[in-house]
Specification:
Layout: E1 2-7, E2 22-29, H1 36-50, E3 60-67, E4 71-75, H2 83-91, H3 102-113, E5 126-132, H4 139-145, E6 150-156, E7 161-166
Parallel strand pairs: 2-3, 2-5, 5-6
Antiparallel strand pairs: 1-7, 3-4, 6-7
């Protein structure tokens, strides 16, 4: 496992637009251990990434779910074909609170969202980006359910920075 730490300041310069073919699913923790301001920061972080994706050409497909006690598949990979539509759906996501059932969210991604009927393309790599405070109610089940490659991003309000941990297979 490789760890990368970076402060939020590194996100001030916009990266080049992503033109690689990829299916990306964002998984947002909306549990009680994440307060509403941290949830808003997560959405802003995802917006920064989405703003630099080539969605209109079909190179990049984006799906998103939020979770707490229950899993809410907000939209699948085939739901939106424009950056504006993805950003609008992201803005509309409400904070919910509850338990941190990360294992249920990851199982849902694997069993429901990474399927052809939900827009998954067999010939295109999948990336699952998990934004959480890392406080899963069942850590063992979470590790078992993680669809590779997964990129957990731990949002820690106390430290005011984003910690990126890349899971290498």
């Amino acid at each position: 496992m490789t760890s990368i730490n970076c402060s939020c300041a590194c996100w001030t310069a916009a990266p080049a637009t992503c033109t690689t073919f990829v299916d990306v699913i964002f998984v947002l923790d909306s549990s009680g251990s994440i307060d509403s301001s941290s949830y808003t920061r997560m959405k802003e972080f995802v917006s920064l990434i989405v703003n630099n994706m080539d969605i209109e050409s079909g190179a990049v497909r984006v799906g998103l779910l939020k979770y707490s006690t229950a899993v809410d598949a907000s939209f699948n990979l085939n739901s939106y074909s424009t950056r504006a539509a993805v950003l609008s759906a992201l803005r509309d996501l409400a904070y919910s609170s509850g338990q941190t059932n990360t294992h249920s969210a990851l199982a849902f991604v694997r069993q429901q969202m990474l399927q052809p009927s939900a827009g998954d393309r067999a010939s295109v790599p999948n990336v699952v980006v998990v934004l959480t405070d890392a406080g899963s109610t069942d850590r063992t089940a979470t590790q078992v359910k993680a669809p590779p490659p997964s990129v957990p991003i731990h949002m820690t309000p106390k430290r005011k920075h984003v910690c990126l941990r890349l899971l290498a297979s």
